[in-house]
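[recover] target loaded
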């Protein structure tokens, strides 16, 4: 067994790294890619310095362990960089927008059409056809003011 480890050389690490990266394409999960990258780094370091097989294994373990936080940092979505920042927060997307009242606000309640949906709105008494601005959202309740 130690003879096998003693024969570890630069080309073995490079081949091992490429095999791991190829396996990543067959069974994707982003895990084998980083192990393959660690093996490639050991192979590249072995080209410059010729460490013993024990040092090569320790380098592989260190590179593989260091790859995990690097992967987590690269894979973490950036704050505010979401493709849909208002996903599952539809009413928050309405905040600050202006709409035309469909039915007048009488006694603090009226309706406004947003797209193909009629929303109940609350605010001061206002005639139908008036432009209003959404100033507050609370669940499905919109509070409006004159625009």
């Amino acid at each position: 067994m130690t003879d096998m480890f003693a024969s570890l050389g630069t080309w073995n690490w490079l081949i091992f790294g490429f095999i791991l990266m190829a396996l990543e394409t067959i069974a994707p999960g982003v895990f084998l890619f980083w192990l393959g990258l660690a093996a490639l780094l050991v192979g590249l370091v072995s080209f410059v310095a010729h460490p013993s097989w024990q040092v090569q294994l320790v380098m592989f373990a260190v590179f593989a362990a260091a790859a995990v936080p690097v992967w987590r940092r690269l894979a973490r979505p950036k704050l505010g960089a979401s493709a849909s920042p208002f996903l599952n927060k539809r009413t928050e997307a309405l905040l600050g927008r202006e709409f035309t009242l469909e039915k007048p606000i009488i006694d603090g309640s009226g309706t406004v059409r947003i797209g193909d949906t009629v929303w109940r709105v609350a605010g001061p008494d206002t005639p139908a056809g008036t432009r209003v601005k959404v100033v507050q959202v609370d669940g499905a309740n919109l509070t409006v003011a004159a625009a």
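[recover] notes: The mean pLDDT is 84.
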